[in-house]
Design brief:
By secondary structure, the chain is of the alpha+beta class. The chain is built from 1 helix and 5 strands, in the order E-E-E-E-E-H.
Length: 92
Amino acid sequence: MIVRSPIIGFVVIQDGSEVRTEVFTALLGDVSNYIKIKKSEKVVGVIPAHPNCFEITESEGASTLGYEFPGATNPDWCVMAERARKRRARNE
């Protein structure tokens, strides 16, 4: 099953001179939807996502297949999910 989770925004996190961004999604009913921040890190900003941006996963809680953004060309997510399943099966 392909799950399209709306992206709320991007959290900008700094640890010393390193900066990273994390995607924050709106997974309905998922209370574990949070971003882990180490004690040495701090949130330096939140960038709101454009409407109609989505994180694509195989199923709730599964690894991310990719992202959909307005105006971008998107792959066939079912094909991507099948490739991910085959890759995992080879690695087991």
